[in-house]
Amino acid sequence: MKSEGLARSGVISLLGSAFAALAALLLTAIVGNALGASGTGLFFQAMGIFTILSQVLRLGTNSGVVRFISEQRAFGRAGAEWRIVLYAAAPVAVLSGIASIAVHVLADALSVWLAAPGEEPALADLLRAMAPFVAAGAVIGVLQIAARMLRGVTAFTLLQSVLLPASRLLTVLLAVSIAGVAAWGAFEAWLWPLPVWLVVTAVVIAGPFVRDFRRRAESTRHTRPGFRGFWRFNAPRSVSSGLETALEWSDVLIVAALASPSAAGVYAVITRAVRAGGVVDKAMRVAVAPTISALLARDEHGASTELHTKVVRAMILLNWPFYLLLIAMGPAVLMIFGEEFVSGWGPMIVLAAAMMFQTACGMLQSILLQGGRSTWQMYNKMLALALSIGGNLLLVPLWGVWGAAFTWLIVVVIDNLIAAFQVHRGMHVRLQPGRLLLPMIVPVVVFGGGGALVNWWAGTGLLTLLVGGFVLCAVYAVVLWLLRRPLHIEALWRKVPIVGSRV
Fold first, then answer.
1. What is the pTM (predicted TM-score) of this model?
2. From the CB of residue 227, how many other CB atoms can be counted at a distance below 10 Å?
3. If 489 and its partner were Cys, which of 241, 350, 422, 484 is the partner (CB 3.0–4.6 Å)?
């Protein structure tokens, strides 16, 4: 295994995640401007249903693949990785195939439950369109994380964060600009790249998969994980993974069903804009999760604590500027998607504040999972989903998009506080909030105060957003350089062992 600087090991993943987030924002802008708020709501409603189905049917295997392969490598074992991939992929392929058939057969019945009045036929058509792709969406997720472990971060990042999002952006752009399609055609164009990249991903992992298979004699019964052991860990993760995905999309579906497609369109746009800030979180998890898993497997709690603190400092310094720009210059951001969406600025402030809190909590979910506490996380997500559904059912009919935004805030705070207690007290990975104060203050002053000043002085136009954002980024870079030692930025480049790729 190779040793890399933490920041350097994560830079490829960070760039890939940034590209994926940019592609998602461009996709949202294309759909928003082409379809309007109502068509956008229908498009994202279908996307939410498809995402929930495909993610749930992955059965939480991403964490299982990372954990078990990392554990094998932490103890220098070989010849069992191919088994782990098969343990994950085979059940997913079978169940997702059955689900594809079920979606097609039950499309009309499901649309009655999920669509707003009058939108049932349109949603039923979208459900039938997605049915053949459900299995591909589930299986490709398993094979991509296998590529992460067998081929490394670069292959994983290209497949998941660059090639698939770019091809989806291109097909949707062609569909709405050249063919002039409505929500149904745009959604089908979004689906078509999936089977192509499923085949490509299978080809990418074939080489290391076969090589490890040939070394199977080196894996003894006492050192290799069994099918039952894999799924004993993964069973609760299967539930919690589905809960996480439902938590991410259930609010959009509830707004669409209880308010209107137009309100769902506004809410979908502001949630997509806010979630774009999660690129650093995702990149850090991809880069560091195998190392966290290996450290926890060896009970190295002190090293886990130090690594987690470094990661959280980096996440705050890189994530908070984005959220603060959304808060300070939200109208200009939302104008990119169309004038109908500017009304979502107030609720977007609430969502951005919630995500700043989540960023400051760090990689709590990854620590729970890679430390073998998947059952704890499952119960956490059950509670979070119950709070989300209950809050949305109660508040959306009263306050519309505002009700969904406040529900999001409540759920994020409670979910992270519970996970923080479990990680700090139950797993002995100590949280150190005092060491995060300076990394919090710097972006708040530069982007919060500076963004509000720019907004007050120059207004909220797109040109103001571009010029003001550039100036604030330049000022921020200078401040980070001047404060690089107090902020411990240089420490991020020290060598940290990264598990997950062979040399």
1. 0.80
2. 13
3. 484
